[in-house]
Amino acid sequence: HVQLVESGGGSVQAGGSLRLSCAFDAYTPANVRMAWFRQYPGKQREGVAYIDGDGTTTYAKSVKGRFTISKDNAQNTQFLQMNSLKVEDTAMYYCRALGVWGRGTQVTVS
Fold first, then answer.
1. Pairing between strand 105-109 and 10-12?
2. Which of 106, 29, 107 is CA-nearest to residue 66?
3. Across the chain, which distance is largest between two alpha carbons, in Å?
4. Are 80 and 93 in contact (CB under 8 A)?
5. Residue 22: beta bridge partners?
6. Residue 1: which pLDDT band, with cuts at 50, 70 and 90?
7. DSSP string of the chain?
8. Which residues does 48 contact at the CB level (< 8 Å), separation at least 6?
9. pLDDT, tens only, 70-108
């Protein structure tokens, strides 16, 4: 049973950066697709960034060129580096893998 724990959220001014982390347990297969989603109040979760087992990455148009997803299997951690943050990036961010969600971490940009 996969467990995911996000961290790294917080408050930042527009134009700033944050790095989110998602710790996953050692039983998570190294070749699974992992992703970051975000959710605005009252809205459905939307995909932000994906990383496949071979390292291929995919981004939503709204974050392409500003966000970078990566994974360190040795540390059992997935990352989302967020640069040039905008007010509209304010949301709850969730890590996802194998149909499992983390609890989320709040990002607030003002």
1. parallel
2. 107
3. 38
4. yes
5. 6, 78
6. confident
7. ---EEEE--EEE-TT--EEEEEEE-TTS-TTS-EEEEEE-TTS--EEEEEE-TTS-EEE-TTTTTTEEEEEETTTTEEEEEE-S--GGG-EEEEEEETTEE---EEEEE-
8. 35, 36, 37, 38, 59, 60, 63, 67, 80, 93
9. 999 899 999 999 999 999 999 999 999 999 999 999 999
**Contact of 91 with 34, CB cutoff 8 Å:** no
| Whole-angstrom distance, CA of residue 32 vs CA of residue 104 | 20
Average pLDDT value for residue range 17-41? 93
| Structure tokens that stand for 74 in this block | 């040795």
